[in-house]
Amino acid sequence: MIYPQKLNSKKSNMIVKIAIMISLLVAGILLLINTIATPEIHWAGLCNAGILYIWVTVLYSINKNINIGGHVLIQTVAISLLTMYIDYKTGFKAWSIDLAIPIILIIANLTMLILTIISHRKYIKYVIYQLILFALSMLPFLFVYENLVQNKTLSYVASGISIINFGLCLILCKKDIKEELIRKFHI
């Protein structure tokens, strides 16, 4: 069987550095075009935020010791920040808090639930990410409490799914969590 040749690390590091330089050049050109052509509309900031998001994803994905739960968490935070930035730059109509962030959190929680069901024996690898995602998923509930959202239903759904997901994970992996706590803390 013929396998593809593996790139050596020096060559792949050089490719990443060149791609980052090209991205920085493109970002600078976009800012220049924006400043010259349409200075009253700041569209280059939106494009550059997209470039930054892509690089967060690529650089995290290149890491050799990727934990899928960590990848889900990084993507959740990065895309949430990107949508909030886009909302802010387009006049802050609060669609990011009303719609985007709750939907992103629902998808992230469902992804973590699927990961837990598929590999419940390895749930311990995901537990810290699950806890952080649970805490982040309570933000829409806080937004409702502070009256920052108009559509409260989606925020309640996102927080509710997070609570159910966290409870199911605890139920499915109760024995593994107990064994891990005993092993780690010598209880």
Q: What is Rg?
A: 21 Å
Tally the helices.
Answer: 8
Mean pLDDT: 84
Q: Return residue spans where pLDDT drops below 50 for at least 5 consecutive residues.
A: none
Helix percent band: over 70%
The total beta strand count reads 0
Strand content: under 5%
Shape: flat
Distance between the termini: 51 Å
Order of helices and strands: HHHHHHHH
Largest sheet: none
**Overall domain count:** 2
Secondary-structure-based class equals: mainly alpha
Please give a structural write-up:
By secondary structure, the protein is mainly α. It has helices at residues 9-37, 43-62, 68-89, 95-118, 123-137, 139-145, 152-172, 174-185. 19% of the residues are buried. The N and C termini lie far apart (51 Å). It is flat, with a radius of gyration of 21 Å. The model has no long low-confidence stretch (mean pLDDT 84). The protein has two domains: 1-66; 67-187.
Secondary-structure blueprint:
Layout: H1 9-37, H2 43-62, H3 68-89, H4 95-118, H5 123-137, H6 139-145, H7 152-172, H8 174-185
Helix pairs in contact: 1-2, 2-3, 3-4, 3-5, 4-5, 4-7, 5-7, 6-7
Summarize it.
Helices cover 80% and strands 0% of the residues. It is mostly helical.
Structural features:
flat; 187 residues; 2 domains
